[in-house]
Write a structure and sequence with these properties.
The chain has nine helices and ten strands. It is α/β, with parallel strands linked by helices.
């Protein structure tokens, strides 16, 4: 689904991402783990095209998208849920969901009701402005807005940040359902290690703009990896 080779990204003169190689396949969740300030969000922004790459290649479904602008990548099926959610607070839940259709390949006039099977609480709040929702409800809306576009690759940046435990559990169940359907690949940037480890099939650990460890997320988290992530 996504294959990244030798990716280098700069902020001005600062060399942030240094020669990243990365792979995620359909129906799998790949966790990007690491402490704050290590380049995880920069990596997601480079995948969606918000930050240009200085060197390297990004392939999506075997085609290079390295030079494509964000809107082209979005229409190909790459959807991004940023840290902090960034819903439109003055628009209703319904209007926020309609905006998600802008990236849908067939441009339907209405989203599919199946989004409410994943997030039933949103059906009761369609006329409410996004800004009055709780943080957890806004996070559900942000993910739902991405899903109505029928993405093939879903990029999630810290979806549990500032969210109450009950909503975290709801989000985890949604991601399991997406994973079990086997059609969408998910890249999950997350500091809540237990959450990420339960969901992920594979993981990459980022440190100072480089992947310093990677592997399959099987069984209990390796103590040496846990120490690296919590030091």
């Amino acid at each position: 689904m996504l294959n990244v080779n030798n990716l280098h990204v700069f902020y001005g003169e600062s060399h942030i991402l240094r020669g990243l190689d990365f792979l995620v396949t359909p129906g799998k969740i790949c966790g990007i783990l690491g402490r704050n300030g290590m380049g995880k969000t920069t990596f997601l922004k480079s995948l969606i095209g918000l930050l240009p790459s200085k060197e390297g290649e990004i392939k999506f479904q075997d085609s290079s998208i390295t030079t494509l602008p964000p809107e082209r990548r979005s229409k190909l099926g790459i959807s991004y849920v940023p840290q902090g959610r960034e819903i439109f607070p003055q628009l209703s839940v319904h209007e926020n969901l309609l905006l998600g259709l802008e990236a849908h390949p067939e441009k339907p006039s209405m989203y599919d009701d199946e989004v409410f099977e994943l997030f039933p609480v949103l059906k009761q709040m369609l006329t409410r402005k996004g800004g009055v929702l709780s943080g957890g409800q806004q996070q559900q809306l942000a993910i739902a807005r991405s899903l109505v576009s029928k993405p093939k690759l879903l990029l999630l940046d810290e979806p549990t940040e500032g969210i109450q435990p009950s909503i975290i559990q709801d989000i985890e169940e949604v991601l399991w359902k997406i994973k079990q359907a086997g059609e969408v690949a998910i890249v999950l940037v997350e500091q809540y290690l237990e959450f990420a480890w339960r969901l992920s099939d594979t993981y990459y650990v980022m440190e100072k703009g480089q992947f310093v460890a990677q592997g399959e997320a099987k069984g209990e988290c390796d103590p040496s990896l846990l120490e690296k992530l919590t030091a």
